[in-house]
Design goal:
Elements (H helix, E strand, L loop, with lengths): L1 H8 L12 H16 L4 H8 L3 H11 L1
Helix pairs in contact: 2-3, 2-4
Length: 64
Amino acid sequence: MAGLQAARERGRVGGRKKGLSPEAQRTAFACFQLWEGKSRTISEILKILNVSKATFYRYIACVK
């Protein structure tokens, strides 16, 4: 704990960065557009963009 406190005092913050990478943002936007257009089924979108169903729904929630 002392080491973490010392790092914080030096301005270092640990942990994972919040948000999506630029590539993931593009994929999320593509998921949303295909889903919103209702021209394709969710299964087709998953195959086209090569994402899992869980990732697809996470991306949709992110973009909304």
